[in-house]
Write a structure and sequence with these properties.
Blueprint: H1 3-16, H2 18-29, E1 33-36, H3 43-48, E2 52-55, H4 77-87, E3 94-100, H5 104-116, E4 122-125, H6 134-155, H7 161-187, H8 194-202, H9 209-224, E5 234-240, H10 246-254, E6 257-264, H11 281-291, H12 305-315, E7 320-326, H13 330-345, E8 349-355, H14 363-375
Helix pairs in contact: 1-8, 1-9, 4-5, 6-11, 7-9, 12-13
Length: about 375
């Protein structure tokens, strides 16, 4: 096994076995873990408290039972599966969970969690949509102050300004490293396949960021030693909320659809925007929210997301775009018409597939992706 294969294998194992990874961290450090739910959470505060931030983004092929008591059938499946897993004890390693109220469904997740999951305290966080106004930034600072106080109760100590700034630097270094990785993966499409790319990104949700950064930097160094590669299939961009289904990614593989860039909330949107350095740490984190662009959950009157995706496709020599539309996710659905129009106007072909974490049937997706590959 080569060095790069070994590194990728390690991160793939973590991505596929998150409970094992978190348990290993807790046993080695004696520390605590805090869940961080979609879409954006101030992980730097958890990290600064000496605790492990753990991504809560549901799971694949989860059979829904208990969660049906808390949500109507038309809620998106990520919220459903998060609640189901919590009710069944999958998240019992967590000492708290931060659940931002970024849309109506996520607000309901937070409130239902508060009512049903008594052993894992719910920490609320409301992001302002008038985010570019100074008043919006100031409001978010006050929200972050509350999150900080709640985390201090969990960890049993004060979270210092110095510790937060240190965590911001660690996270910005991770963001830089991940941006370099996705660019190198695009220029080495034969060395990094779709599943490997997804696992490398996803593993960061279950590791300390400095440890993940170290491993990804080594992968980047190995990729830099390899000449840029030509891919015989089709280069594509993905956009949407989440696309971590191994089955769907393997369908893309079998149809020679190689992901060379993404605008996925669960993936690149997490590290696309750095936290700027301001006069205090909480203001720095709050200001990042005002600088995020091209996300359906961040108010944008100019709707530039489609143009951003089209530009990314042109920059990465992609032939088309796959829109992974999370079933019943109103926020993404509202974006879809303008997003797809802008991508079509750029001369790119698109296909929309429906993502449902509960469903085990992917034959419709298989057919749509096969047809899309034939169109390219």
């Amino acid at each position: 096994m080569t060095t790069i294969d070994k590194l990728i294998s390690e991160l793939e194992h973590i991505a596929e076995n998150p409970r094992e990874a978190v348990a290993d961290y807790l046993s080695k450090t004696g520390s605590k873990a805090v869940g961080v739910a979609p879409v954006y959470t101030p992980e730097e505060l958890v990290h600064a408290a000496g605790m492990l931030p753990v991504g809560i983004w549901g799971g694949q092929n989860v059979t829904l039972d208990l969660a049906k008591q808390y949500f109507p059938a038309f809620c998106n499946s990520v919220v459903f599966t998060c609640m189901e897993l919590a009710l069944k004890g999958t998240y019992n390693q967590l000492s708290a969970a931060i659940i931002p109220g970024m849309d109506d469904t996520l607000i309901c997740l937070g409130q239902n969690w508060k009512a049903a999951i008594k052993d894992i305290p719910f920490i609320t966080l409301v992001y302002p949509q008038n985010r570019k106004l100074s008043a919006g930034v100031k409001y978010l600072v006050s929200e972050l102050e509350n999150v900080k106080k709640e985390l201090e109760k969990v960890c049993g100590k004060e979270i210092s300004e110095e510790a937060i700034f240190n965590s911001i630097d660690i996270y910005n270094e991770h963001r830089k490293t991940m941006r370099e990785f996705v660019e190198l993966a695009a220029t080495h499409p034969n060395s990094i396949n779709n599943v490997q790319r997804s696992h490398i990104i996803k593993s960061a949700y279950f590791m300390l960021k400095e440890e993940h950064t170290q491993k990804v930097k080594l992968i980047n160094d190995e990729l830099k030693k390899i000449p840029e590669e030509k891919y015989d299939g089709h280069r594509i961009i993905t956009t949407g909320f989440i696309l971590d289904s191994k089955e769907i990614l393997e369908i893309m593989e079998s149809n020679a659809l190689r992901i060379v860039g993404d605008d996925i909330a669960h993936e690149t949107r997490q590290f696309r925007t750095d936290v700027p350095r301001k006069e205090n740490a909480l203001l720095s984190i709050a200001t990042q929210w005002s600088e995020i662009e091209g996300c359906s959950f961040a108010y944008d009157p100019f709707r530039i997301r489609g143009k951003m995706v089209a530009k990314l496709a042109k920059d990465r020599d992609a032939e088309g775009v796959v829109f992974a539309l999370l079933k019943f996710c109103d926020t993404e659905e509202y974006d879809a018409p303008i997003l797809l129009d802008d991508i079509h106007d750029a001369g790119l072909k698109t296909v929309t597939i429906e993502i449902d974490q509960e469903s085990g049937s992917i034959e419709q997706i298989r057919t749509r992706l096969q047809t899309f590959a034939e169109m390219l």
